[in-house]
Design goal:
Strand content: under 5%
Helix content: over 70%
Radius of gyration: 20 Å
Distance between the termini: 49 Å
Number of strands: 0
């Protein structure tokens, strides 16, 4: 495969995978990002890559996440923070606390048996407070090996799927045995119009919805958003050059995150349509590139440890969160929706709210997920270095 063909493949392949996910529901359930990793691993391990593809791969890998991250953050309306109140805010704090504690426990168990366990802990904290974009951004910031990044994404999907299906089916009935039923105070009830607007927002942020992205009224502002993202990337490169080499990628990612958040306060930037989808597309390009760099033999070798590590974090954090919710009398629906918003992401909130037959929790769930997007990179990166530099 010539180098130019490889470049075109990296750019075009995510579009084809998105199309297949839209056409075939079983692929959609598997997830476009995970399929991108699989396709990348396939071409990287069957001998079709050109000789010395490393320069192209590293260029795409280093540039994609810094470019995508601001695009993902531009559309976030941080004014929604004000809607987090009472039990919802408390439950969200418990989500964060439980993920931190479970990740620390997993790290302490595996730090002698899994090289880079501190990095895995950081990535899982990012994905279980924010989303997959946080996981990949943290992985790049911590200079994680390609096979570890691929495996962590795969383990995340495998470990979380049973949990999600349980919450959709029996979760409410099960947790209502230990927690109060949901009952909104009159002052906290959201209007039907506000709830419907929140549902529409969630649909806009659906990573599979790229319809109309080539229309001029959408494409031109998106090009402007891309320019802003490039400017943020360039400014953040200054932070990259000012810190020691060990921490330069972390400084780059955190500066980009901060500037992306600040840009979201500018209304004209925040209201650019489909900036989230464009950022997510670039993330999928990153997934294919990293997958093609991963050595399948190393993936197989590290698989059991990372799978168990992820299991401990997912179900350990769920258990801790549930215990704290029981102690502080948080209702079952609020517990479930904040857990889903943290461990998955905002687009999953309306789906679970529908299964709960409770529209009232949609706004609080979406807000929790938005806050998670914002803080995920900070939590994951700082906690990873905390684990790495433990004195014992």
């Amino acid at each position: 495969m010539p180098i130019p063909v490889l470049v075109v493949f990296y750019i075009v392949a995510p579009a084809f995978i998105i199309y297949l996910c839209h056409k075939y529901s079983f692929l959609d359930k598997l997830g476009a990002a995970l399929i991108c990793y699989g396709v990348g691993m396939l071409i990287g391990n069957i001998g079709v890559l050109p000789q010395n593809p490393q320069a192209v791969q590293e260029t795409f890998m280093i540039a994609s996440i810094p470019l995508a991250l601001p695009l993902l953050l531009f559309s976030l309306d941080l004014k929604k923070w004000s809607r987090l109140a009472g039990k919802t805010f408390l439950s969200f704090l418990f989500v964060i606390t439980s993920v931190l504690v479970a990740s620390f426990i997993a790290h302490m168990i595996y730090r002698s048996n899994l090289e880079g366990s501190w990095q895995v802990a950081g990535m899982l904290i990012g994905v279980y407070t924010g989303g997959s974009a946080n996981l990949n951004a943290i992985g790049l910031a911590l200079k994680v090996d390609e096979h570890v990044l691929v495996l962590t994404n795969t383990a995340d999907m495998l470990m979380c799927t049973p949990y999600f299906l349980f919450m959709l089916s029996y979760g409410q009935r099960f947790f209502q045995k230990f927690m109060p039923a949901f009952c909104a105070a009159p002052a906290e009830r959201s209007s039907k119009e506000a709830i419907d607007a929140a549902c529409r927002d969630a649909e806009i942020e659906d990573i599979n919805n790229y319809v109309g992205i080539w229309r001029r009224p959408i494409l031109i502002p998106l090009l402007g958003a891309t320019v802003v993202s490039l400017v943020i990337f360039a400014i953040s490169a200054g932070a990259y050059t000012l810190v020691p080499k060990e921490y330069n990628m972390a400084a780059l990612m955190l500066t980009i995150t901060t500037l992306g958040i600040l840009a979201s306060f500018i209304r004209r930037i925040r209201e650019i349509k489909m900036s989230f989808q464009l950022g997510q597309y670039i993330i999928m390009l990153f997934c294919i590139v990293v997958g093609s760099m991963a050595d399948l033999r190393m993936v197989v070798h590290a698989a059991p440890a990372i799978m168990i590590f992820t299991f401990i974090v997912v179900y350990g954090s769920l258990t801790i969160h549930a215990i704290l919710a029981i102690i502080f009398r948080i209702d079952a629906d609020t517990f479930i929706i904040t857990s889903i918003a943290g461990l998955f992401s905002p687009p999953f909130v309306p789906v679970v709210a529908s299964a709960l037959k409770n529209r009232e929790v949609i706004l609080s769930g979406l807000t929790t997920g938005i806050v998670g997007y914002v803080i995920g990179n900070y939590l994951g990166i700082f906690f990873a270095y905390f684990c790495k530099n433990l004195p014992f």
